[in-house]
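FIELD: query
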Amino acid sequence: MGSIQDSAALPRLSSGAAVAIAAAGLAGTGVVFGVALDGGHADQDGLVATGRAAAVLIPLAVGLHQWRSRGPRRYAALLVLLGLAMVRRRSRSRTRLCSTARHASPAGSPST
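FIELD: result
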């Protein structure tokens, strides 16, 4: 009888699947970077955009590397999911901020 860890292991990620996930992650990183760069962060747009892009790219890259190698595949899959989830979270933050600013601005004054 094998161990619990062996029976619940995820399969090794194929090259095609890794390339597809990496392409989706790079596209998402570009979206997050663009949205943050366009955001209203005073004089620090570049710094904020770089940080948000790194929050997507780093877990995704580490997760893909670990999943393709002999590392713990469950942890690698969680890192990949975290990276992809950050795309959704970070790309919505600008929309929520603008919508809140429009509702909070006094009538007649321009919104940001």
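FIELD: remark
The helical segments are 4-7, 15-37, 45-68, 73-104.
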